[in-house]
Design a protein that fits this description.
With 299 residues, the chain is of the alpha/beta class. The protein has eleven helices and nine strands. This is Glycosyl transferase.
């Protein structure tokens, strides 16, 4: 990496992923080109992550790493934002891999449309049994209101590693550090609502699903679900025409939690969230997949 401002910064938070972090770093290192810096934030890991990173760095791997006290994924990403130099930021989880050819596809797209603030590509999911599923790139609407509406109502799926966002976006928005789960949702929502977005057909990231993933920690989901709504709909960021979607998002969050909890066997809590969803937005009761799940909880 030369001293010129790199086109990309790949920011990788790491907490107790010593057995996987080298794979994530390699997935970026092996990309074509020499315009992507790699920044790894060791977020107070208690395993061998620190020694693994030191060893990789000593061997001449092309990345920088920083050790900090544990503060969670949001804190680590914000730390990485402050340390990086790239024009476009890509947040890659330590247990995932940048897809082959991702940076080439981004370079070509950026050259053709340099005014785009956020590029969002396709991704694939790798399950513990080896099965792999493909998820296509998001189909963005033309206005910020519609993009926000589509995202909070799960018509558009966004994941870390599949987005490349201009650096100046993070002068305005940051990851909320009090959230220990779903901390990326406010950033995704605010990005699509406030900045110019475009989809990219190329596969950007391979997401490795595993059973101990924080994504499936019910306790964190329950504790943080209302905070996610408040962090997403910040009056100092959103005009009134966007704030009207807050109740709709609260209802959708409750529906999603209801389904997750009922399927996990926590039926009483699941029903309570379904009731909250309908209270927030009466039309929620017409969403048959969620209603069916609710009714089945009584069988």
């Amino acid at each position: 990496m030369n001293e010129a401002t790199p086109l990309f910064s790949a920011i990788i938070p790491c907490y107790n992923y010593g057995d996987r972090i080298s794979r994530a770093i390699d997935s970026v290192t092996f990309q074509a080109g020499n315009d992507c810096e790699i920044i790894v934030i060791n977020d107070g890991s208690t395993d061998n992550s620190a020694s693994i990173l030191k060893d990789l760095y000593t061997r001449g791997e092309n990345f920088s790493y920083f050790n900090k006290t544990n503060g969670g994924a949001a804190s680590a990403r914000n730390y990485g934002i402050d340390k990086c130099r790239g024009r476009y930021l890509i947040f890659l989880d330590a247990d995932d891999e940048m897809a082959q050819g991702a940076l080439d596809a981004l370079r070509e797209a950026i050259q053709q449309q340099p005014d785009i603030d956020v590029w969002a590509g396709a991704h694939s999911n790798i399950f513990p049994d080896g099965n792999e599923t493909k998820a296509s790139e998001p189909n963005f609407s033309q206005t910020g209101y519609l993009r926000l509406h589509d995202y909070i109502n799960k018509k558009v799926s966004l994941v870390n590693g599949a987005l490349a966002s201009k650096r100046y976006i993070f002068d305005k928005i940051r990851y909320p550090e009090d959230l220990k789960n779903s901390e990326d949702i406010p950033v995704f929502a605010q990005s699509v609502a406030l900045f110019k977005c475009q989809s990219l057909a190329a596969n950007m990231v391979r997401i490795n699903k595993h059973r101990d993933s924080l994504r499936h920690n019910l306790d964190f989901l329950i504790q943080g679900h209302l905070h996610v709504v408040d962090h997403t709909f910040r009056e100092e960021l959103f005009p009134k025409e966007l704030m009207v979607l807050k109740r709709s998002y609260l209802s959708q969050r409750c529906l999603s939690l209801s389904r997750i909890l009922i399927k996990a066997g926590q039926k009483q809590q699941g029903r309570a969230f379904f009731h909250q969803a309908v209270k927030a937005r009466k039309s929620a009761i017409l969403k048959w997949p969620y209603l069916k799940n609710y009714l089945r909880s009584f069988l």
